[in-house]
């Protein structure tokens, strides 16, 4: 009896040791990844402690569930799956500086299509991130100090581990709330969530959000559109109609420049201009230098969404994928109703970003995709058809098009990983610590050359008389992962304010009859639609639009990002901190309170429409409102 007890005690001690070692191992790895591979911007020692603590609850949870379902093997499977989850996030993070969301997962085909870039994302040293799996296997299956000492976890123990995860998470959350109140209720960015609750808990949280959004559509009804219409009516402003109709009846070419940011404009590298052609061209049109992209995970497709609908894209996933079945009142649809032949030109697979489906919902008449271009390997590189050929073919197509037309062109070459054939490099690489940024200058320079050839030929063609050209950058190309290198190039420290200002993208409106001007108004892609319809003199009856005509002298200057940050005439508000927009100096945070609230309200209202598919009720709601108005008059 005595001896038996001794062995039991010994074995319990051994078991606890294995538990501690395996849990500790995963904890170590996760802490390493969270602290060293992701840039989570840890600001003080309290945050550093939270970051170190937060893996624990999730580790108890996954191991607990693993043991419950499959004992020792189950625990090992949890270890492997946990490791894969971490690694996939690392890969995703390298490309997007963001964490995976469930809607993004349903777009694996698209992600896999990241084509040329996947090879550049993988690193040999990544193998080291799996060495611990072997150690865990050894600890779990082969460590047997004696005949009586075997690690055989009981299901009951799995249950206990999973239960312990709950108070651990509560402690984690309470602790995190000392840094950020309402962490889970407010729309903070994912970097922040991961910093405070850890990557695996973040995924659990994301799954809960997913469930909630799916419920929203099922339970939505027409009444829900009323607060949105009221909100937008309250924020409506008198339109000055400046430049109204100056482009009436003209063709429109909207050119979306891949990953093109404002910081390259009028800037040099090795003493040479990076965008020499655009620098001159912008002097001949209306050029906006405080214009921001507002995209999130859907990147280019998000910018297309903003332009077409003047609504915000979503915080999670690409709305082109998640809500392509919604009803929209897209700009292409409006222009088609006004006699335009509306089309998109983009020499990539038509399924990329689910475009073939979404373009129908937005009301485009035609989509000229890869299969409509004479793409050959010689004329392609990395992501595909090189811009110069794309421009040439597209212009030829437009020359033959029925008029008036609205053509949305999307370039491709200036895309991460920013590689080019040797003979297309018109400038030396940069010399910063980031290869990505260094190559970016070359692809930007190439794009500028392709643009030159396109615009010059356009100017000499018959189209020039009757066509306006709207050129804008779709989103950033250089993510915050390259802040240090960016600082080297721009010769200043890139703090949050500077990083925010780097989200500006160029916007130029150019064409015969449009007088050149420099416009400093603060705006974003959400403002493109009302700006365009104003120039074209087209009445846009759709009340569900969040943007404001950029031409208005007295316009409400406000640009809201998907993170709930904002810029207005005077301030820039970033995650609760307030800056003077001109000087970048930090100022008292209450000054920005109103701006943050407004930003939140904008995003929530826009989201409610998309999640509830509320535009399907627009006619009905408007009819009821009309009726109410006329009833009031009669009384
Ligand atoms: C691909 C192009 C680039 O068709 O739109 O996509 P991005 O990764 O920039 O969203
Ligand atoms: Mn893009």
From TrEMBL:
<feature type="domain" description="Sulfatase N-terminal">
    <location>
        <begin position="250"/>
        <end position="538"/>
    </location>
</feature>
<feature type="binding site">
    <location>
        <position position="415"/>
    </location>
    <ligand>
        <name>substrate</name>
    </ligand>
</feature>
<keyword id="KW-0472">Membrane</keyword>
<keyword id="KW-1003">Cell membrane</keyword>
<keyword id="KW-0479">Metal-binding</keyword>
<dbReference type="GO" id="GO:0005886">
    <property type="term" value="C:plasma membrane"/>
</dbReference>
<feature type="binding site">
    <location>
        <position position="474"/>
    </location>
    <ligand>
        <name>Mn(2+)</name>
    </ligand>
</feature>
<dbReference type="InterPro" id="IPR017850">
    <property type="entry name" value="Alkaline_phosphatase_core_sf"/>
</dbReference>
<keyword id="KW-1133">Transmembrane helix</keyword>
<protein>
    <submittedName>
        <fullName>Uncharacterized sulfatase</fullName>
    </submittedName>
</protein>
<dbReference type="InterPro" id="IPR000917">
    <property type="entry name" value="Sulfatase_N"/>
</dbReference>
<feature type="binding site">
    <location>
        <position position="300"/>
    </location>
    <ligand>
        <name>Mn(2+)</name>
    </ligand>
</feature>
<dbReference type="InterPro" id="IPR050448">
    <property type="entry name" value="OpgB/LTA_synthase_biosynth"/>
</dbReference>
<dbReference type="InterPro" id="IPR012160">
    <property type="entry name" value="LtaS-like"/>
</dbReference>
<dbReference type="Pfam" id="PF00884">
    <property type="entry name" value="Sulfatase"/>
</dbReference>
<feature type="binding site">
    <location>
        <position position="258"/>
    </location>
    <ligand>
        <name>Mn(2+)</name>
    </ligand>
</feature>
<dbReference type="GO" id="GO:0046872">
    <property type="term" value="F:metal ion binding"/>
</dbReference>
<feature type="transmembrane region" description="Helical">
    <location>
        <begin position="76"/>
        <end position="94"/>
    </location>
</feature>
<keyword id="KW-0464">Manganese</keyword>
<feature type="active site">
    <location>
        <position position="300"/>
    </location>
</feature>
<comment type="similarity">
    <text>Belongs to the LTA synthase family.</text>
</comment>
<feature type="binding site">
    <location>
        <position position="475"/>
    </location>
    <ligand>
        <name>Mn(2+)</name>
    </ligand>
</feature>
<feature type="transmembrane region" description="Helical">
    <location>
        <begin position="158"/>
        <end position="176"/>
    </location>
</feature>
<feature type="transmembrane region" description="Helical">
    <location>
        <begin position="12"/>
        <end position="30"/>
    </location>
</feature>
<feature type="transmembrane region" description="Helical">
    <location>
        <begin position="127"/>
        <end position="146"/>
    </location>
</feature>
<feature type="transmembrane region" description="Helical">
    <location>
        <begin position="50"/>
        <end position="69"/>
    </location>
</feature>
<keyword id="KW-0812">Transmembrane</keyword>
């Amino acid at each position: 009896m005595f001896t038996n007890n001794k062995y039991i005690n010994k074995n319990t001690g051994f078991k606890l040791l294995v538990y501690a070692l395996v849990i500790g191992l995963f904890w170590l790895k996760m802490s390493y990844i969270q602290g060293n591979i992701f840039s989570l911007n840890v600001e003080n020692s309290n945050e550093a402690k939270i970051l170190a603590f937060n893996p624990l609850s999730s580790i108890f949870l996954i191991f607990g569930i693993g043991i419950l379902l499959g004992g020792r093997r189950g625990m090992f499977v949890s270890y492997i799956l946990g490791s894969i989850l971490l690694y996939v996030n690392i890969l995703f993070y390298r490309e997007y500086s963001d964490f995976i969301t469930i809607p993004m997962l349903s777009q694996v085909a698209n992600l896999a299509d990241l084509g040329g870039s996947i090879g550049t994302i993988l690193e040999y040293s990544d193998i080291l991130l799996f060495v611990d799996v072997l150690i865990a296997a050894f600890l779990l299956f082969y460590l047997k100090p004696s005949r009586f000492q075997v690690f055989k976890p009981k299901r009951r123990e799995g249950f206990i581990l999973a239960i312990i995860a709950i108070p651990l998470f509560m402690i984690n959350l309470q602790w995190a709330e000392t840094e950020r109140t309402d962490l889970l209720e407010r729309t903070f960015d994912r970097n922040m969530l991961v910093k405070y609750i850890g990557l695996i808990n973040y995924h659990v949280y994301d799954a809960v959000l997913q469930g909630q959004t799916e419920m929203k559509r099922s339970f939505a009804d027409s009444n829900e559109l009323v607060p949105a219409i009221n909100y937008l009516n309250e924020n409506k402003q008198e339109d000055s109609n400046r430049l109204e109709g100056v482009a009436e009846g003209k063709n429109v070419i909207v050119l979306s420049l891949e990953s093109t940011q404002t910081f390259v404009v009028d800037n040099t590298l090795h003493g040479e201009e990076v965008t020499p052609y655009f620098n001159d061209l912008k002097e001949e049109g209306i050029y906006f230098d405080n214009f921001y992209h507002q995209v999130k995970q859907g990147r280019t497709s998000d910018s297309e969404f903003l332009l077409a609908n003047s609504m915000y894209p979503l915080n999670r996933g690409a709305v082109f994928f998640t809500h392509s079945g919604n009803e929209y009142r897209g700009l292409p649809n409006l222009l088609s109703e006004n006699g335009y032949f509306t089309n998109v030109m983009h020499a990539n697979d038509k399924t990329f970003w689910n475009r073939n489906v979404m373009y129908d919902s937005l009301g485009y008449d035609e989509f000229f995709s890869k299969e409509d271009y004479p793409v050959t390997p010689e004329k392609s590189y990395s992501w595909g058809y090189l811009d110069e050929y794309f421009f040439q073919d597209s212009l030829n197509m437009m020359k033959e098009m029925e008029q008036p037309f609205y053509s949305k062109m999307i370039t491709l070459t200036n895309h991460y990983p920013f590689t080019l054939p040797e003979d297309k490099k018109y400038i030396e690489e940069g010399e910063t610590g980031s290869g990505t940024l260094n190559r970016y200058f070359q692809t930007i320079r190439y794009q500028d050359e392709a643009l030159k050839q396109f615009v010059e030929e356009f100017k000499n063609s018959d189209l020039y008389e009757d066509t306006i050209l709207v050129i804008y950058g779709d989103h950033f190309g250089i993510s915050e992962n390259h802040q240090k290198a960016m600082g080297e190039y721009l010769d200043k420290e890139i703090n949050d304010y500077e990083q925010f200002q780097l989200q500006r993208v160029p916007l130029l409106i150019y064409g015969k009859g449009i007088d050149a001007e420099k416009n400093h108004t603060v705006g974003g892609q959400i403002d493109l639609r009302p700006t365009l319809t104003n120039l074209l003199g087209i009445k846009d009856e759709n009340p569900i639009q969040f943007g404001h005509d950029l031409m208005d002298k007295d316009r409400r200057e406000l640009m809201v990002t998907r993170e709930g940050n904002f810029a207005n005439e005077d301030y820039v508000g970033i995650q609760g901190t307030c800056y003077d927009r001109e000087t970048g100096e930090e100022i008292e945070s209450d000054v920005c309170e109103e701006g943050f609230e407004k930003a939140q309200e904008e995003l929530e209202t826009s989201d409610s429409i998309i999640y509830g598919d509320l535009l399907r009720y627009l006619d009905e709601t408007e009819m009821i409102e009309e009726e109410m108005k006329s009833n009031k008059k009669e009384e």
